[in-house]
Amino acid sequence: MESLITLVNKLQRACTALGDHGEESALPTLWDSLPAIAVVGGQSSGKSSVLESIVGKDFLPRGSGIVTRRPLVLQLHKIDEGREYAEFMHLPRKKFTDFALVRKEIQDETDRETGRTKQISPVPIHLSIYSPNVVNLTLIDLPGLTKVAVEGQPDSIVQDIENMVRSYIEKPNCIILAISPANQDLATSDAIKIAREVDPKGERTFGVLTKIDLMDKGTDAVDILEGRAFRLQFPWIGVVNRSQADINKSVDMIAARRREREYFANTPEYRHLTHRMGSEHLGKMLSKHLEQVIKSRIPGIQSLINKTIAELEGELNRLGKPIAADAGGKLYAIMEISRIFDQIYKEHLDGVRPGGEKIYNVFDNQFPAALKRLQFDKHLSMENVRKLITEADGYQPHLIAPEQGYRRLIESCLVSIRGPAEAAVDAVHAILKELVHKAINETVELKQYPSLRVEVGNAAFDSLDRMREESKKATLKLVDMECSYLTVDFFRKLPQDVEKGGNPTHSIFDRYNDSYLRRIGSTVLAYVNMVCSTLRNSIPKSIVYCQVREAKRSLLDHFFTELGSKEVKQLSSLLDEDPAVMERRASLAKRLELYRSAQAEIDAVAWAK
């Protein structure tokens, strides 16, 4: 059982070392889930004397006004033999065997946190005392409740102290040790008043009555100690502390404990209660109760730790890794994040992620539909055919077939294909840009660095713009090639067609009749449709080769080339993470370290058992 108190001691020390003091924050707190005994009392209630009696050493600061200005987490460790000594968590590996120096260090450490003012601070001081004369126990000594601010203190000090005390004792895992002096009316006790507010049924409160030996003659505290005056779940415990004269004379604690036992044994009113009175009984009873509470809470603490570790790891993963300090580390981080984006982009094109199918839709629907919408019939109307044929003949009419007229008619039709070809290039370009936006939004790492996000996006868009221009040139070249060189085999079939439908040796006067011109128009239309069918297959190939394939191969090549020439400042500017995110990550990492160490400590105790 003793190992359980030791376990909680370790966890409390880890909490303080890693900044978990149980105060309200945006981070999960382990401190609040750990069972603890908080010592509460008004000024001059004998609170310090009770603690010193339990420890058996004179080590706490004394004086008028508010002496305890920071919570003191007092961890007592029973050792089998050897010299008593004390250790502070903020001074590791330094052992104090002179307890007068312990008192001075408490004062000095308080001043380091609060300054030499009379302000208070919620940051606890951790003090461990190792002695054969103590029980395994942890107590938290809180600032004494007061009703009036003294000189040098703000008016809010009264409320500030109450708020600090309340923040500890209102938590369900806190055991309240309420110190009240017997020579004052219990109804006015600061400790009982605040304990009753947070624990109205008295299920977590232990009442300690001090200064019993200083009560007026003819009065006693039997009604309180027997629970008739104010009932609590646990029996009241009376103690007799050293008087101020004893303190001034440095009366030994061992002697003081002996005199305390003698007082209860020899005073008729309290003789029947002797077995459960005194500071020694108080220490043993608190130790036993704390062990029982810890044992009952361990499963819940384990569950909380495991759940919180998963939550902290999840949030840290979402926030991403911290930024490297050196230029090489920064460059590597930028390259890695950019490659992640590039891979996501390729997955969209390859069908692993949605979006790439829109490009096929351009080739299979939009581009063919645009070709069909071309009004070749206007180009090949009777009037236009007659006009172009006669213009091509010039002053000397053609002899057999109007070759120049054919060429002009075909060229005027094929030039109009340039529009749908350019539109197909632009449509694919728009889809590729849309996929850049999608890939950027899906690259979690880029959300961490707004400037890098913009830079990667701009670099990708610039590359796509260059690819579009190359694609337009290549695609329009395909159209221009069809205009530049006609397929001869197609026209070699014309004489056969003529033999089927007419005589190629018409007189010059009937070569421009409607039937002849209509035959020319239908021949040109057949040729243009053949070319459209060819381009419908070759233009998508050109677009894929110049845009889609290049986007997969070299979307960020230019960006990577420029990165190599950037200086540290420029690289740092790309990794301009939000300071709030950096602070949050550091806090989460610290808190995760706490929970993992807590998990390891609990597991070690479980394995040992």
Automatic annotation (TrEMBL):
A cellular-component GO term for this protein: microtubule
SUPFAM superfamilies the UniProt entry points to: P-loop containing nucleoside triphosphate hydrolases (SSF52540)
Domain Dynamin-type G: 31-299
GO-annotated molecular function: GTP binding; GTPase activity; microtubule binding
SMART domains, sorted: DYNc, GED
Domain spans labelled GED: 517-609
Keywords annotated in UniProt: Cytoplasm, GTP-binding, Hydrolase, Microtubule, Motor protein, Nucleotide-binding
Subcellular localization, as worded in the UniProt entry: Cytoplasm, Cytoskeleton, Phragmoplast
Pfam families: Dynamin_M (PF01031), Dynamin_N (PF00350), GED (PF02212)
Major subcellular location class: cytoplasm
UniProt xrefs under Gene3D superfamilies: Dynamin, middle domain, P-loop containing nucleotide triphosphate hydrolases
Superkingdom in the source lineage: Eukaryota
Similarity comment: family membership: Belongs to the TRAFAC class dynamin-like GTPase superfamily. Dynamin/Fzo/YdjA family.
The protein's name in its UniProt record: Dynamin-related protein 5A
Gene encoding the protein: LOC109717326
